[in-house]
Amino acid sequence: MTHDFEFGVESRYKNKREREADAISLMQARLERMKNLPKEQIVRAKLLQLKLKMENYLIEQNNTEDNHFTNFLKMYIDTIYSHRSKFAEDMNITPVFLSQVINNHRDPKEEFLLKLMIHSEKVFKNVGDFQKKTWYQVYFQEKIADTMFNQEKWRPGIEKQVKLSEPF
Asked: Which residues pair with 27 in a beta bridge?
C-alpha cells in the first residue's frame, strides 16, 4: 500500500494503472446508472444546473463564451423541448425570430424577455426557486460587459457628438 501524503490519506492502489482502471470502472457504473434515470429527473437536474450557472455568472460576472444569454437560452430550451419550434409556439413567437435571437442576429424584444420570465416561473415551479429577474439580469449584464469592453469601437464617434456648453 502506498501513501499519498499530498492528500493526507493512504492510497489503496499499488500503482497508477490500478487507480486509472478503477476510475474507468467507476465512470462506467455512473453512466450505466444515468441511463436508467427517469427523463423527469434528468430534466430537473439539467434545469438546476442551468440555474446555478446563471446565478454564478451574475455573481462572478465572468463574460466567457459559455456565459452568453443565448447559450443559457439554448440550454433552457433544449432541456425542456425536443424541438425549438415547439418552444416558439408555446411562447407565441415565430421560429424565425427565435432562431435570430439564438444565433445573435437579433436582440430579444422586451416582450420576449417578459414571456421568458413567465415561462421560467412555470417550468421552475416544481424544480426549485428561480428568480423572476434572472433572465433580465443575465441579458443586461452581458450588454453592459459588451458595451464597456468595446468602447474603442463606439466611443470616438459618440464622443464627437457630446458637448459641454456650460462650465461646470
From this structure: none
Amino acid, single-letter form, for residue 3: H
Residue 4 predicted with pLDDT over 60? no
26-37: b (≥16 Cβ within 10 Å) or e: eeeeeeeeeeee
Identity of the amino acid at 55: E
Model-wide pTM > 0.85: no
Residue 11 pairs with which residues in a beta bridge?
2
Alpha carbon separation from 57 to 69, 72, 104, 163 (Å, rounded): 10, 10, 19, 37
Does the pLDDT value for residue 65 go beyond 90?
Answer: no
Mean pLDDT is highest, among 14-18, 91-95, 131-135, for 91-95
70: nearest Cα among 129, 115, 126, 113: 113
What does R_g of the chain's alpha carbons equal in angstroms? 23
Residue 58 has pLDDT above 60, yes or no: yes
N-term to C-term CA, the chain: 77
